[in-house]
Amino acid sequence: MLMSNTPSLENYWMPFTANRQFKAAPRLLAAAKGMYYTDVDGAQVLDGTAGLWCVNAGHGREKIADAVARQLMTMDYAPSFQMGHPIVFDFAEKLAARAPGGKEAGLTKVFFTGSGSESVDTALKIAIAYQRSIGQGTRTRVIGRERGYHGVGFGGISVGGLVNNRRVFPLLPGVDHLRHTHDPVRNSFVKGLPEYGADLADDLERLVALHGAETIAAVIVEPVAGSTGVLLPPKGYLERLRAISKKHGILLIFDEVITGFGRLGTPFAVDYFGVVPDLVTTAKGLTNGALPMGAVFASEAVYEAMMNGPESQIELFHGYTYSGHPAACAAGLATLEVYEEEGLLTRAADLADHWQDAMHGLKGLPNIVDIRTIGLVAGIELSSRPEAAGARGYDIFVDCFNKGLLVRVTGDTIALSPPLIVEKQQIDTMVSMLGDAIKRAA
Ligand SMILES: Cc1ncc(COP(=O)(O)O)c(C=O)c1O
Question: What are the TM regions of this chain, as residue ranges (predicted)?
Answer without folding.
Answer: none
